[in-house]
Design a protein that fits this description.
The chain has helices spanning 6-20, 46-64, 75-81, 121-131, 137-144, 149-159, 169-174, 176-181, 220-230, 247-253, 267-278, 299-305, 330-336, 339-343, 355-378, 388-397, 410-416; strands at 31-34, 71-74, 89-90, 93-94, 104-107, 113-116, 163-165, 188-193, 211-215, 234-239, 258-261, 282-285, 310-315, 381-387, 418-423, 426-431, 435-437. By secondary structure, it is α/β, with parallel strands linked by helices. α1 (6-20) crosses α2 (46-64) and α2 packs parallel to α15.
Amino acid sequence: MDFPDTAALCRSELAKLLASLHLEPGLSEQVDFVGDDTIFATRFRVGTAAGVTLAAATLAAFAAIGRTQRFRVDLDLAALTTQGYRHVLLDGAPVAAPRDALTGLYDTKDGRLVFLHTNFAHHRERLLALLEAEPTRESIARRVLGWEAMALEDSMAEAGAIGAMARSRAEWVESAQGRALAGLPSVEVVRIGDSPPEPWSDSAAPLSSVRVIDFTRVLAGPTCGKTLAELGARVRRIENPLYPDLLSYQLDSNRDKQQVTLDLRQPKACDGLREMIAGSDVFLQAYRPGVAQRFGLDANALASLRPGIVYASLSAYGHVGPWQARRGFDSVLQASAGLAMQEGGGVPRLMPVSPLDYMCGYLLALGAAVALRRRAQTGGSYLVRTSLAQAANWLTSLGQSAAGREPRDCERLVRDHSIDSPGPLGSVHHLRSPISLIGA
């Protein structure tokens, strides 16, 4: 379908999102949406999705201190930030790495297509071992042609490789995982323990007294931490030395955080992390369901360690259903959840952006702010959870256009909306936030 008035659609979706978390829907009237979300040639409303979820997180943060604040959301800039990692510069030089040459869509012997994700070395090695292939597209293509798509998808999941069969949207909805997620909201906030209320005083930045441990990597989880930092929180990000992020991801999502490197295979590192968590308010993690428990970092354990903790968790496929333990990234979910098929009009094509990663980050920040508000009012420890799959379902619910749009001059928008920030590695040139406070 064609889209209605963009600002009206945004305000309507924002009110529904707030109401789903028991926030006053009328808060949506505090937000002015500008721009028309047409900068990318995609069928999806990526700027609308990013702008609405980021606006909801901002409203929830101000609500946590009992304050209303008018602000403006630039939807074109919100759309642009869904590929923000591509636009960072370090001391004036570009750092964005191209997608790994082996990543992409491959034909299978049953006439389907699978999307293989090899951007990280350990995933690439697992895939090559499974296929018994050389590290070339030609070798992988020959091996993949010997597999049926669903059998390869299942085998990749078992081997710890990353990939998925490209499905239609109907196939996703009718799948066991699609059915398991059908009744879930885009983000959940669940009380998991009791503790005294922890109110805090008003300040210019609503979350200035909030301390966050960010135990995530790549884009979705770090985007949540970055969003909380932009709202005033003090964020300490834990780096895993075994799996470092790409530099462009680091500069886009982690520049406003204190960086701490910990190898959790070492007992002292685990003890140090628990000590940091005990002195914090929010813990962000992106392990697959069940994995954090191996390290004693599951929600119930941390609620015992730090009563009043807000435990914010995201995954690829959600916390229910047969695929809850599967790994995935934005592009993989675009394929498996039917978005790529919709984008290509029946022939799988990825969007030119990573909307699910950024939406997930904003949704998780929204849930964390809601949980902090509830803790301030009535106390308690809280579990906040969302997933790339839930974000995909919500993005699809916004509708798609019958035909793609003509892209606009993104280079000019990047020039007009970039700022410089100092960092430990040098001066970082990056996109500013799409949020502008009014009258602050």
